[in-house]
């Protein structure tokens, strides 16, 4: 009996042990209780942001339509060019990743910003605006504004598309709360940033009106939903 027990112990010791992390994952499941609660909170906040996503989109399109058609056409041409290139030719993921790494280096002094800044800040759009601000002091020509608007539309779509893809691919996203809340917030910040840039480039685009009308439309949508659900 003693020999059999010692043999069993030797065989058991030879069997590979599972890592502690893997065992913990199995015992707790894909999501822990805190992760689920946090996921539900982000999901609810994301749903609250969705009407604001619609509001800033609708008001942005309305505001940009005020700009002279010959000028605003360059912005939409940049948007369409990126979408066409992305669908039919190939993804510019190398360019996006390079900009992502550049922002990580810039904000390396503060780790929380390293995690957030690359998603919130469209680095190529910011560089484009700085170049335009310098060149506009030296060059007084319509083509500078036209090509800048084209690249503005192109770089904006580049940032939004790949930010959405990156946030959506994150693992352990319970109810997709991180994606719904995270990308809605990124979208709102970026559209607001583009609206601010356009207000400096084109006099007919008013940033104050954009913010005011967006908040008013959001309030009206939220009130209509609340009234439909809770007021009889």
How would you describe this structure to a colleague?
By secondary structure, the protein is mostly helical. The chain has one domain (about 30-230). The chain has helices at about 1-15, 20-30, 35-65, 70-90, 95-105, 110-120, 125-140, 140-170, 175-200, 205-230. Helix 3 (about 35-65) packs across helix 10, helix 5 (about 95-105) packs antiparallel against helix 6 (about 110-120) and helix 8 (about 140-170) runs antiparallel to helix 9 (about 175-200). The chain is globular. Residues about 1-5 and about 15-30 have low confidence and may be disordered.
Secondary structure topology:
Layout: H1 2-14, H2 20-28, H3 33-64, H4 69-88, H5 93-106, H6 111-120, H7 123-138, H8 142-168, H9 177-201, H10 207-230
Helix pairs in contact: 3-9, 3-10, 4-8, 5-6, 7-8, 8-9
* Number of β-strand runs: 0
What is the N-to-C order of secondary-structure elements (H for helix, E for strand)? HHHHHHHHHH
| Residue-averaged pLDDT | 83
Number of helices: 10
Amino- and carboxy-terminal Cα gap: 79 Å
Regarding quaternary structure, what we see is single chain
Approximately what portion of the residues adopt beta-strand conformation?
under 5%
Question: How is the main sheet built?
Answer: none
The poorly predicted ranges are 1-5, 14-29
How would you describe this structure in keywords?
globular; mainly alpha; 10 helices; 232 residues
Give a short summary of the structure.
It contains ten helices and no strands. The chain is an all-alpha fold and 232 residues long. It starts with a helix and ends with a helix.
């Amino acid at each position: 009996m003693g020999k059999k027990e010692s043999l069993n112990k030797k065989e058991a010791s030879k069997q590979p042990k599972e890592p502690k992390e893997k065992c913990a994952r199995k015992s707790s499941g894909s999501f822990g209780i805190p992760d689920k609660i946090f996921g539900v909170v982000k999901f609810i906040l994301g749903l609250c942001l969705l009407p604001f996503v619609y509001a800033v989109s609708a008001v942005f399109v309305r505001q940009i339509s005020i700009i002279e058609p010959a000028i605003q056409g360059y912005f939409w041409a940049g948007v369409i060019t990126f979408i066409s290139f992305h669908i039919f030719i190939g993804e510019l993921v190398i360019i996006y990743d390079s900009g992502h790494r550049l922002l990580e280096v810039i904000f390396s002094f503060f780790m929380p910003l390293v995690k957030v800044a690359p998603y919130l800040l469209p680095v190529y759009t910011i560089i484009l605006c700085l170049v335009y601000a310098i060149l506009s002091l030296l060059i007084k020509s319509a083509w500078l504004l036209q090509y800048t608007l084209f690249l503005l539309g192109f770089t904006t779509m580049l940032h939004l598309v790949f930010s959405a893809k990156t946030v959506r691919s994150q693992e352990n996203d319970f109810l997709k709360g991180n994606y719904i809340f995270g990308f809605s917030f990124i979208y709102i910040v970026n559209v607001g940033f583009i609206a601010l840039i356009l207000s400096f480039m084109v006099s007919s685009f008013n940033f104050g009106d954009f913010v005011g009308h967006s908040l008013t439309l959001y309030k009206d949508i939220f009130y209509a939903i609340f009234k439909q659900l809770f007021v009889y």
